[in-house]
Write a structure and sequence with these properties.
mainly alpha; 87% helix; rod-shaped
C-alpha cells in the first residue's frame, strides 16, 4: 500500500465535505433567494472570523518582533561592553610592555 503522508485521505475528506455541502444546498427545501442569503451570511461570518484571526496574528507578530529587537539590543550592548573590556586590557598590556621593555633609542 502506498504511503502519501495522509494527503489522499485529507483530499478525499475535503472533496466529500464539499460534495456533501453542495448536495445539501441543492436538495434543501429553501428558495434560491434564501440559499443565497444563507451563503452571504455564512461568508460574512467567515470574513469576520478571518479578520479576528488576522488581527490576533498581527498582534502576536508585532510582539515577537519587539521581543526580538529587545534581545538584539541586549546582545549588541553585551558585545560592546565585551569589546570595550578587551580594548582596555589590550591597551593596559601594551602600556605594561612599554614600561617593562627598554626603549628603542637605548638599543641603538
Amino acid at each position: 500500500m502506498e504511503n502519501n503522508g495522509g494527503y489522499g485521505f485529507m483530499s478525499g475528506l475535503f472533496l466529500g465535505a464539499t460534495l456533501g455541502a453542495m448536495a445539501a444546498l441543492l436538495l434543501a427545501p429553501k428558495s434560491g433567494r434564501e440559499v443565497r442569503a444563507d451563503l452571504y451570511a455564512g461568508g460574512e461570518r467567515l470574513k469576520e472570523r478571518a479578520s479576528v484571526k488576522a488581527n490576533d496574528l498581527i498582534g502576536r507578530g508585532e510582539a515577537a518582533i519587539e521581543k526580538a529587537r529587545e534581545a538584539a539590543r541586549e546582545t549588541a550592548d553585551g558585545v560592546k561592553r565585551g569589546a570595550s573590556r578587551l580594548l582596555r586590557k589590550g591597551e593596559e598590556a601594551m602600556e605594561d610592555e612599554a614600561l617593562s621593555s627598554p626603549s628603542l633609542s637605548a638599543r641603538s
